[in-house]
Each structure stands twice: as structure tokens, then as C-alpha cells.
Amino acid sequence: MKKILFLALIFSLYHCSSPKQLSTTETQNKSQTTKKVLARTIAFYNLENLFDTIDDPKKRDEDFTPKGRDNWTSEKYKKKLQNLSVVISDIGRKETKTAPAIIGVAEVENRQVLEDLIQTGDLKKENYGIIHFDSPDRRGIDVALLYKKDFFKPVNFKKYPLYIYDNDTRQRIYTRDQLLVTGMLDGEKIHVIVDHWPSRRGGEQRSLPKRVKAAELSKKIMDSIRKIEPNAKIILMGDLNDDPASPSVKNVFQTTAKKATALSQNRYYNTMENFYNRGIGTLAYRDSWNLFDQIIITPSLLDDSNPKNFHLWKAGIYSKEFMKNRKGRYKGYPKRTLVGGQFIGGYSDHFPTYIILIREL
Predict the structure, then answer these.
(1) Distance (Å) of CA 249 to CA 18, 206, 255, 281
(2) For residue 177, what are the CA distances in angstroms to 160, 162, 221?
(3) Domain 3-360 belongs to what topology?
(4) Which tens digits make up the pLDDT trace of 313-328?
(5) Helices and strands counted in the chain (H then E)
(6) Domain boundaries, the chain
(7) What pLDDT is stored for residue 33 in this prediction?
(8) How far is the C-alpha of 296 from the C-alpha of 249, rounded, in Å?
């Protein structure tokens, strides 16, 4: 299916939550054959330190307590949950008329904060499920997957530990596990990997080998699935702490930003690379933008030869004005929850990214 056909079809988007809803185009042109299209949003969002207010002796969460450095009270926690619920529920809604079918998240303290999140605001009515494992990360933050139970049915899920070591002491550096979830999206099998690669602490180049190791683990997972299922539909999403052009991404995955190349050479397609090439990012640091929040897919998700199967329609970065700083030196940057320990009531230091998959009904 060509892009021009996609644009025509968008006016007749159909979704399972309201099966009787017809677009104006469908209603006015009953004499013509109208193709109904099912559209689903798959998103990723770094929630920036979504901690509860309870001190867990096994985690470094002392700052996020009422008596801690950040004076993290129940009121502030609830405000953050409310803000995040507003963002998440709206990602892709314009195109699909519903909240995301699947959302990978990073920087969550535990399962309870996710339980609180999906019961907040507009998310409460969306019937989300949770897949989460505690990881050995030294900061106590994990990755997880939220999914709409009406759309996605998990079949299997597993965590993969990342083994990396300090160059000087050879001691293991404990970081986030990688999460693999396999399930049926409206009856079609897909695999989703949620990652949060090691940070750039200590400098980009000095810390790069850690992210290369993370990339190698992710690619190993993806390659092993494709060995069994050559046409597997796999989505890797996460805060990679590197850009689409970084060696950890470009060299390890051999990604491309050209759909034709991905299909003809059977290469991984980075849905965020074209945004990066245009200078668009998801977070800003020291007056420059980065695009760490990436979604990489197998070429099978670009194949539209059978329009009855899910395939990529579009990708995006959700960056509404209400999520940004409105003035000052950091105008236009993501509005954070805390700055220098001071609560400013923002959302996250990252913008979420997303893709929309479509198929004819």
C-alpha cells in the first residue's frame, strides 16, 4: 500500500473500542466501497523517576521521601501521576481515537507505582495491564510494559539481565534488565522489547562500551527470534542513552532510515532516525538535543504487500506545548518534575515516541 493510499484511508480509521463509529466520509459515500482500517499506537515513555514516597531499604530512593532531599510528598507524587496520565492517554489518540495499545516505560521504581498510574485520570477507564520485573539497577529503577487488555493478549514474557563490568575493578555494574514480551495484538503475533541502556555517566565515549554491550544483547534477542520466525514482527523500544547515529545503534544493529533499504537488504529500520537527521530530539542537555528514545523494528513491519496484516503507517514524537518549559533559557525543553530538588510540577525530561500500525479489516 502506497503512502497516498494511507492518507486517503485515515479519514475512515476504525477501532475496536467503537465498532459502530463511521467517519463522515463513510457516511456520505455509502454508494462507494470504503475500506475500514484498524490503527494501533505503540509508544515508549521515560517517566523520569516515577518513585513512590516510601523508603525501600533495598533501593537508593531516600531522596524520594517526604524527609528526603526532594521533599517528595504524596501531593507531589499524585500530581506527577496525573500529569503522566494526561500524556499517555493522548499519545496517538488523534489518529486512532483511543489510547495506546502498548506502552513501554522506563524509570519506574516498582510495580505499585504502575498500579497507581493506570488507576489515575483518563487511564483508569482504559483497562491497562502491567508486565514488570524488579531489576538489580543500583538506582532502583526498572522498565515495564503497559498494555490495553482489550487489544493485546500477552503469551509469554521474560527478562534478560545485562552483564557489564567496571573496566578498573572488573566488578559487575548492576543496571536495568531487558524485557521481552510476546503476545497477540488484535490476534496478530508481535514481540516487544523494552530497554533502558546504561547512562553516559563518566562521559559519552568512556561509557560507550556499556551501551554497546546492551545493544549486542538486544540484537541477540531479536536475531534469535528471527532465526525461529524469519518474518517475526519485533519492536525494540527504549531510552538507549545514545542517538540513532551512535555506534551502539548504527554499528551493532546496522539500522537504516530508508524503508526500501530495510526491505531489500532485510535490515532493521529505525523509525526515529529521520527525525534525528532533521535535528529533532526527545530530550535536551547543555543547549543541545538528543534523540535517545528510539523505536527500532524488523523489516516485516514495513511490508504492506498484505494490507490485512499490521504494518507501519507513521512514527512520531509526542511533544505538546503543555509539556514544555514556556520561558527562560530552557524554553521549549521538556518540563521536568523537579529541577535542582525544586518541584515545578512538570511531566518528564523526555518526550515520548510512538509508532502507529495499521491493517485493513
Answers:
(1) 39, 16, 7, 16
(2) 5, 6, 13
(3) Deoxyribonuclease I; Chain A (3.60.10)
(4) 999 999 999 999 999 9
(5) 9, 19
(6) 3-360
(7) 59
(8) 10
Instruction: Find the range with the poorest average confidence among 17-31, 49-63, 127-141, 222-236.
Output: 17-31
Percent composition of the chain: helix, strand, coil (DSSP 3-state, to 5): 30, 30, 45
Cα separation, 176 vs 163, in Å, equals 10
pLDDT 10s digits, 126-157: 999 999 999 999 899 999 999 999 999 999 99
Q: Of 163, 259, 281, 180, give the one whose Cα is nearest residue 225.
A: 180
DSSP string, 214-243: HHHHHHHHHHHHHHH-TT--EEEEEE-SS-
Q: At what angle do helices 111-118 and 74-90 cross, to 10 degrees?
A: 60
Judge whether residue 5 has pLDDT over 70.
no
Closest CA to 109 of 127, 81, 134, 76: 134
